[in-house]
Amino acid sequence: MKVLVTGAAGFIGFHLVRRLLDRGDDVVGLDNLNDYYDVGLKHGRLAETGIDPTVVADGALVPSRTLPGYRFVKLDLIDAGGLARLFAAEKFDAVCHLAAQAGVRYSLINPQAYVESNFVGFANIIEAAKTHRVGHFVYASSASVYGLNETLPFSTRDNVDHPVSLYAASKKSNELIAHSYSHLFALPTTGIRFFTVYGPWGRPDMAYFLFTKAILAGRPIEVYNYGEMRRDFTYIDDIVEGVVRIVDRPPAGEPGWSGKTPDPSSSKAPYRVYNIGNGRPVGLMDLIGAIEKSLGRKAEVKLLPIQPGDVPVTWADTSDIERDFNFRPKTLVETGIARFIDWYRSIYK
């Protein structure tokens, strides 16, 4: 297939690009290379895929020097004209839309970034996919959409109408927009609710990354909700494997779907939503223990109250993806953290 991966210089996008290329797909990566976090890390991911960051220019496709079949374009999602030209020229079979303004807490201080990327940008790219008849539009949603829901584990059949951050609301809006396009234009769309993704080349604003950096520097780590947090940590290789399986099988719609008892995860239209999570929530203090073990150092812990926009527990019900794709993430957090620490030491010396 020819696949567009947006957010290709981001954490998940970078790994997905390499996985698609490994199996022989023709891939175009797209990213605006914004400075939400260290651009040097994004440049490092580009370099790993054979893209020289010094020759990247707005709107120009740059071929990889090391990976045949891969090209990268620097482009912002709010540039609807640029997207239209790219789609018209490339005629993609599938789109994996991973680009977004990330971060729950950042949405409290810079909401405009989320409006531009997650609302306007999403509308622009799904419109391009519809106009140019893309065969499958796959997009990143988030476990954050579950918001105030207290029913555990989180199921795609749960009501998700009570988000607790603008970031979560933006991801819920993406699912609603996708359904309308599936219903009106028969565009096959699949949303994937990711649960706390971690691993090598990860985002430096994530807790496991911040903890590692602070412990090695001899600084205390800030642990919110007094350590009483549990997260469904999901290793990056498991995430990517799930995405690839989903990309290969567009939804066709459920003939038995009923508007009298509507299932939020599916529709008569070619629309679907899945969770990808480990299905085994891990306590935050247990995560810290795994980091301490891999580093061979103890952490100095500073306990703090829960932050606005955070939820105390995330836990994925993965029964849908297990049933439909015979797939379930399997990497234990101790294994995944050890791999991350090895990568961190190799990069940051």
Q: Could you describe the 3D structure shown?
A:
The chain has 349 residues and is an alpha/beta fold. Helix content is 38%, strand content 16%. The protein contains 10 helices and 14 strands. It has helices at 11-22, 39-48, 80-90, 111-131, 166-185, 207-217, 236-247, 284-295, 319-325, 333-348, and strands at 2-6, 26-31, 61-63, 70-74, 94-97, 136-142, 189-194, 197-198, 221-223, 230-231, 234-235, 271-276, 282-283, 301-303. A hairpin with a 6-residue loop joins strand 3 (61-63) and strand 4 (70-74). Helix 1 crosses helix 7, helix 4 runs parallel beside helix 5 (166-185) and helix 6 (207-217) crosses helix 8. The two termini are 39 Å apart.
Structural class: alpha/beta
Give Rg in angstroms. Answer: 20 Å
Globally, the shape reads globular
* Strand line-up across the major sheet: 3-4-2-1-5-6-7-12
Mean pLDDT: 96
Multimer state: single chain
Low-confidence stretches at least 5 residues in length (pLDDT < 50)?
none
Order of helices and strands: EHEHEEHEHEHEEHEEEHEEHEHH
Mind summarizing the main beta sheet? Answer: 8 strands, mixed
Strand % is 15-25%
Query: What share of the residues lie within helices?
Result: 25-40%
Alpha-carbon distance between the two ends: 39 Å
Number of strands: 14
Count the DSSP helices.
10
